[in-house]
Design goal:
Length: 319
């Protein structure tokens, strides 16, 4: 199924580029919720225990379109949120450090009227899901992370593994002022499509899907807000706030954790992600999807959704 085709003559806005229906015309409920001093757009489908889905770069809530349907059909309240600065959420001038972004997430859980949630995060969303599980463990029922190691593993790999440093060259490029923002929106967001295509495995995304992400990135200020978390992650490594965050993340994750990864991920090496279980003092399951790249939930949505739903329904997930 392909995404709806946007009108290239219409300037992108959050209303036109973000509030979309699911493939096949299935409608989700779009609304805004207040949390942590900002307003966040969410797309919601289904009833039951809350599963909150967190996107990565360079995407927004729509990356979870397949999982929203699968989770709702399995009896869950599936909610995909746009992170601060992206999609239909507020673009604030500051607040893009991981601790504050994690408080955005747990604040949304509260604003949705739920006592807790299963967090499902991909890429940057996975980094923030790890963080939220450490900072607000009572609000996280279960944790699912895709294509992202634990923050302490990520930091170690970026500093000591040349292969990972090379694979993450885009993050180093984000440290330049102004240039990344201009590159991301040039030619109607062409770079966004190139990155998603290059980071995928053999199953390539369709052009219509890439157009959706390109259009969303071209909403004013989105490109700047999208790279700000990565600027903090790199520039803070030797600063007191970064060192404090790294120490804070020594606290173990104490909720059942499912860790998913594509064997052909060119952005986050398998050796960087593997081993994150040392920070989990709870049942931890590692699953490697053979032949998939950085976006396993989009490259093979059926396999990903099956793994996700089966694990969420398992009353005693294995270690």
């Amino acid at each position: 199924m392909t995404a709806p085709t946007p009108d290239p003559s219409t300037p992108p806005t959050a209303a036109t580029a973000v509030r979309l229906d699911l493939p096949g015309g299935r409608k989700v409920t779009h609304r805004d919720v207040a949390a942590n001093g900002a307003r966040f757009h969410v797309a919601e489908l289904g009833d039951g225990p809350l599963v909150l889905l967190l996107h990565g770069f360079p995407q927004f809530w729509w990356t979870w379109r397949h999982q929203l349907t699968a989770l709702a059909d399995a009896g869950y309240r599936a909610v995909a949120m746009d992170l601060r600065g992206v999609g239909g959420s507020d673009r604030t001038p500051r607040g893009y450090d991981p601790a504050n972004l994690a408080l955005d997430i747990t604040g949304v859980v509260r604003s949705l009227g739920e006592p807790d949630a299963a967090l499902v995060g991909h890429d940057l969303g996975g980094y923030l899901a790890w963080t939220a599980a450490v900072m607000r463990p009572k609000l996280v029922r279960r944790l699912v992370v895709s294509s992202m190691p634990h923050p302490r593993r990520w930091r170690s790999a970026m500093l000591s593994d040349f292969g990972q440093t090379r694979a993450s060259s885009h993050i180093w490029g984000f440290q330049r002022p102004f240039v990344p923002e201009r590159q991301l929106v040039a030619d109607d967001g062409a770079l966004v499509g190139e990155l998603i295509r290059d980071w995928s495995g053999p199953v390539r995304p369709e052009d219509a899907d890439l157009d959706v992400y390109r259009r969303a990135m071209c909403i004013p200020s989105t490109a700047h807000c999208s790279v700000e978390p990565y600027r903090w992650m790199m520039r803070s490594m030797a600063r007191p706030d970064g060192l404090q965050f790294n120490r804070r993340m020594k606290r173990p994750v104490r909720v059942p954790t499912l860790h998913l990864h594509g064997s052909l991920d060119p952005v986050m090496r398998t050796r960087s992600a593997a081993g994150s279980g040392e920070y989990v003092e709870a049942p931890y399951r590692w699953r490697l999807f053979d032949g998939l790249g950085h976006f396993p939930h989009e490259e093979d949505p059926a396999a990903f959704s099956t793994e996700l739903v089966n694990w969420l329904k398992d009353p005693e997930p294995d270690r």
